TrEMBL record:
Name of the protein in question: Enoyl-CoA hydratase/isomerase family protein
CDD domains registered for this protein in UniProt: crotonase-like
Lyase keyword on record: yes
Lineage, highest ranks first: Bacteria, Bacillati, Bacillota, Bacilli, Bacillales
Organism: Paenactinomyces guangxiensis
Family according to the record: Belongs to the enoyl-CoA hydratase/isomerase family.
Length: 262
């Protein structure tokens, strides 16, 4: 693990907690932080002892308040802005497609790039004071790190348009009602709850977790018939693992399974 300037990391039994840390600017995503996050993903991908990832923001006020607006005036051409969006999108896609569950522990504002980052997680755990929104329209721009795409897929076309067009912030409770947030916890409990959930997921069969993720992701991009066929083939792959033997035998022997990811 590297010594990052804007990311703190903490490891426990099977999980790593990454805390994005630029508290003076509400953890806004500048180039440096995005590069470090890319390095963190490299490290997570090759570190077998990390089975679950938690991402949160430093401080009590914000998860991430968006891309760093102070860097925007350096952009002089549409093509430069397009490249910026593509770089961010490719990093966020890597996070979304990690072969390990990613819990986004949203501890405050998740705006613009922050909401877009949260939507790349598998599970969004939100503190009661969390706020979600895509306020780019107020800057005269549109979301660029996947907001129009993932929000529409998460909450439906018209609600996504409403949120992106008004720039309105929604509460954790409203985000949960829309299906964006899976669980809300009191702010002081957020990290404890995230670690507990991570610990629970770290005990599951890693290959099964990986195949569940792939089956849902790939299935959503195709018609139902093709998706069901994909599920059947991943079901087949999950049967062909040592962890299946272990899981089934443990059930029959009335003991807890010990999964190895094989
Ligand atoms: N970029 C850079 N700096 C930011 C920032 C951002 N996204 N968000 C907050 N900050 C800075 C503020 O400028 C302020 O700095 P100073 O103390 O030096 O003035 C500091 O963080 C604290 O913020 P506020 O004083 O504004 O705090 P507040 O409690 O009054 O308001 C807020 C909080 C509502 C989140 C407000 O800061 C805000 O609206 N931030 C911008 C949110 C935004 O527009 N995000 C989208 C960015 S564009 C984007 O993300 C594009 C994309 O899709 C890739």
């Amino acid at each position: 693990m590297s010594n990052w300037k804007h990311i703190r990391s903490d490891q426990g039994e099977g999980w790593v907690l990454l805390t994005l840390s630029r508290p003076k600017v509400l953890n806004a995503l500048n180039r440096e932080l995005l590069e470090e996050l890319n390095e963190a993903v490299d490290w997570i991908e090759k570190t077998d002892s990390v089975r679950v990832v938690i991402i949160t923001g430093s401080g009590e006020k914000a998860f991430v308040a968006g891309a760093d607006i102070s860097e925007f005036n350096e952009i002089k051409a549409a093509s430069q802005a397009e490249q910026m969006a593509l770089r961010g999108q490719s990093l966020f896609r890597r996070i979304e497609n990690l072969h390990k569950p990613v819990i986004m522990a949203v501890n405050g504002y998740a705006l613009g790039g922050g909401c877009e980052l949260a939507m790349c997680g598998d599970i969004i755990l939100a503190a009661e004071n969390a706020r979600f929104g895509q306020p780019e329209v107020n800057l005269g721009i549109i979301p660029g790190y996947g907001g129009t795409q993932r929000l529409a897929r998460a909450v439906g076309k018209n609600m996504a348009k409403y949120l992106c067009m008004t720039g309105e912030m929604i509460t954790a409770a409203e985000a949960q009602r829309l299906g964006l947030v899976q669980k809300i916890v009191p702010a002081p409990e957020l990290i404890k709850e995230a670690k507990q959930l991570a610990g629970q997921l770290a005990q599951k069969a890693p290959l099964a977790i990986q195949l569940i993720k792939k089956s849902i992701h790939n299935g959503l991009d195709v018609d139902l018939g093709t998706g069901l066929q994909l599920e059947a083939s991943y079901f087949g792959l999950s049967f062909n693992t040592e962890d299946r033997t272990e899981g089934v035998n443990a059930f029959l022997e009335k003991r807890a399974p010990r999964f190895k990811g094989k």
